[in-house]
Specification:
single chain, about 400 residues, alpha/beta, eight-stranded mixed β-sheet, six-stranded mixed β-sheet, about 40% helix, about 25% strand, globular
Length: about 400
């Protein structure tokens, strides 16, 4: 059966879904609608891990090879606290420029016969006639917002402020840098995405943000201040604001989006239009591409569209549970950063790697560090730790919900 599909939003989710559907059946009529001009995407580099790359090789080897070819890799992490640096081995990570990623996926989609229409904004008022409309238009999705009540959309803002920047400093490892100021701690996450550029995300508590004057500084003055604060980490390299011409880089509060249901009739949500996870776990692009894989598989295996969309939603919601939990605890770790900064750098870095743990917020940091070290040697203690953490987390979460009633 030939299916007509309209993908709204030319991000990774919509483009990759169009590729997978065309590979399944070249007769499918697929159009990707993107409101911005081609090549005008905002963003620096995105991260992903070996597990995703293996999945992409399985589902479309050609785009996976191009993606891997244009990515940089690292297998270490570095944490700088004040003027002390600690380096540890890590899982193999990959970075690629968002512009290059979209360029690769767009070229592959075109080669398979997908129509790409740029500078074409789709809203509820001009929905294309299609068997399936895929809302992949991001956290600000116009199509989801038009029916927010039916989707059960909820957005929860985080406490800290962050800004997404680029830099000419090419990091050789995934780098964390923590700087103490008179107004509190400020920190950055840095990772390379090309031989010439890295991403640098800066974050701080609201009182630090206002105390440093970052709330009122223009972009040039703000970048100059951040370059001074992170001079040792940047080795004198510059920070760069927006990579497009649509205005200055903005300080934001991360917003966690959830939806009670992901479909309405023939309209289905995908990627950041359906869910967001805190950037500190580096999973946004991975989850968008995995959504595309799951939706394509559901449409292939179930001829009844409502059943296919229900199956896709059920599978992805189940897969997201542990990831969303990890993202929530990761964000909370940074929001409670002073709790850990008195530790020796090696211990702080170890707990930074454990920030996804549901047990960590409820155990004194040094005690947790000792337990974690011991658990690395004793299987019984590892099992106890895995058993105890989720139970404490569920109890605290239940009490929190009860207190709101």
């Amino acid at each position: 059966m030939c299916v007509k599909v309209a993908c709204v939003g030319g991000g990774p989710a919509g483009l990759y879904l169009s590729i997978l559907l065309k590979r399944q059946d070249p007769s499918h009529d697929i159009t990707v609608h993107e409101r911005n001009p081609e090549g005008s995407t905002y963003g620096w580099g995105v991260t992903y891990w070996r597990g995703l790359l293996d999945k992409l090789h399985e589902h479309d080897p050609e785009s996976a090879r191009a993606l891997e070819q244009h990515s940089v890799t690292w297998n270490e992490g570095v944490a700088r606290v004040r003027d002390v640096a600690t380096r540890r081995g890590s899982d193999e990570g990959f970075g690629i420029g968002r512009h290059r990623l979209l360029e690769i996926l767009a070229a592959r989609a075109r080669s398979l016969g997908v129509r790409l229409e740029f500078e074409h904004e789709i809203t509820e008022g001009n929905l294309p006639a299609a068997d399936l409309v895929v809302a992949g238009d991001g956290v600000h999705s116009a199509l989801r917002t038009a029916h927010a009540g039916e989707f059960g959309s909820e957005i929860s803002p985080g406490r800290n402020h962050y800004i997404w920047l680029g830099t000419t400093k090419v990091f050789d490892a995934f780098t964390f840098a923590f700087v103490e100021t008179d107004h509190g701690w400020i920190w950055c996450y840095g990772y390379a995405f090309s031989p010439e550029r890295s991403t640098c995300v800066v974050e701080c508590a609201p009182e630090t943000w206002t105390g440093l004057g970052l709330d009122t500084a223009n972009e040039a003055d703000g970048l100059a201040l951040l370059e001074k604060l992170f001079a040792d980490t940047l080795d004198g390299h510059a920070l760069i604001g927006r990579s497009s011409v649509d205005g200055a880089a903005q300080w934001l509060n991360f917003r966690t989006l959830t939806n009670r249901t992901w479909s309405r009739g023939n309209l289905v949500l995908i990627g950041d239009a359906a869910h967001t996870t805190h950037y500190s776990i580096g999973a946004g692009t991975t989850l968008a591409l995995e959504d595309a894989i799951a939706l394509a598989d559901a449409l292939r295996d179930e001829p009844d569209l409502p059943q296919a969309l229900a199956g896709y939603e059920q599978e992805r919601k189940a897969a997201l549970l542990s990831i969303q939990s990890a993202a929530r605890y990761s964000a909370q770790w940074y929001e409670n950063l002073p709790r850990y900064m008195h530790l020796p750098p090696e211990q702080m870095f170890a707990l930074l790697g454990q920030r996804h743990s549901p047990l960590l917020p409820y155990v004194p940091p040094q005690l947790y560090y000792r337990i974690d070290r011991a658990a690395g040697q004793l299987e019984a203690l590892r099992r106890f730790k895995r058993w105890l953490g989720p139970r404490i987390a569920r109890t605290v979460h239940a009490r929190s919900l009860a207190s709101r009633k």
